[in-house]
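Intended use. Records like the one below are meant for learning the mapping from a protein sequence to its folded structure. Do not use them to infer anything beyond what is encoded.
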Amino acid sequence: MVTTLVFDIETIPDVEGIRRLHGLPDELAPEEVAEFAFQQRRAVNGSDFLPHHLQRVVTISCALRDASQFRVFSLSEPDCAEGQLIQRFFDGVERFTPQLVSWNGGGFDLPVLHYRGMLHGVSAPRYWDLGDGDYNDSRDFKWNNYIGRYHTRHLDLMDLLALYQPRASAPLDDLAKLMGFPGKLGMDGSAVWKGYCEGRIAEIRDYCETDVVNTYLVFLRFQLMRGVLDKAGYEAEITFVRETLGRLEAAHWERFLAAWPLSTPDENKSK
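Structure written out for the chain above:
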């Protein structure tokens, strides 16, 4: 079995970076600095979505599936600082060379990790291998690496399913719920900054973890459609994920399982 690592990040405005770029006084509160940046963006394009390089990473959540386990974990504040959690993420890529799976990872998560990783001096040689590295299998990376948009070593499900057409992309929450999976519970990306200011970092982490499991479940349906899994294999994997989550003593997994019916509408129709 190919080791699969589904990942998702949560970010907040880089308050100190914004101060430095605009010469803002230290007396301004973080919320005031962020609001200044939001207003600057709204004046340009009507949206307060900040540029990728000004998005500070506070959580990276992962769902790891290998031959023996399905495991969900997070690299997150306050356990480690931004540079440390980004380095640990790329250390995992270095160690396992997994297939990375994301939802809009090519459009958001990975570019943010690139910029923020460089700011902190992160090292990620395996991730950046384009076929000219020092690894024994480096030549294979010329044809299938983490960087190529049409390669599968990183599979951006949103981008692929839309056939690389932005106007055809679908929200993960909608697609997961249409398939009978729980979708987002209790929070979405627009609420992360407010939650962070209120000290709810654990809630942000829990939200990010449920997002990566939703992504993995949609990925399994994709694997069924493309024939990598047959019906029996798909159902066995769904059961394995459900049973694994059921053994985790955490409130967000209890809510997740409560929102996940034993069979999805589409599965019922096909039986």
